[in-house]
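Good morning C.,

I know you're traveling, so I'll keep this short. The sequence:
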Amino acid sequence: MQEHDHDHQHSAIADHQNLNDGSLRAAVFGLSDGLVSNSALVLGVASAAEPGAVVVAGVAGLLAGAASMAAGEWISMTTQREAQEQQLAMEAAHLNRYPDAEQNHMLYILKKAGLTPDTAASVVAELADKPNQNLDFHARVELGIDPDELGAPLRAAVMSFFAFAAGAVVPLLPWAFVSGTRALIATSALSAVALFVTGAALARFTTQGALYSGTRQLVVGILAAALTMSIGALVGVQV
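The tokens, ready to paste straight into the viewer:
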């Protein structure tokens, strides 16, 4: 029975996804953005340019977008990590200089969370003589920061680069084999399928159903592509 309970507890813990290091967000955003933006770019340029220009624009969009996404992800996550480190350093200083005030604040938080006054006081008292554990506890409960998971900027940047490139290459694939109207139709169909599948797959990490998530992703992509195609056609006519 104890072994069964242990296996059940391990399974319950494993069901949760580690979403704190930024890699999932970078992959999701990169793949989605690469697919939507390059589909819109390819279809928009195809409305007003020759097939060769479409491929050049698509490849340029892929490389520029992937590099931009990676750089932006690295900067944003590095800044976030540095801000969290500053908060941790500030909390450590406060615990050292104002221990009584910090203990009273933690007592208030724990009692507000539902702990009895005696239990809250026992927790605070037990941690008071354990500086490292006390800081860790304050960081998690008071600041909402997990000191062990401050994010991985480089990993997120790499993930973002390749995810964007993977999404951006999809609308380019038909142009390697066909051109003109057939390429436009193939790009539209392939991009639509990829958009829906991507959205449906993301439902695994959310509370939304696969059909809803996939449809939402598809609609957003269609609207973006339609807008870009309209602008491309308008510019093409004027030129």
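Safe travels,
E.
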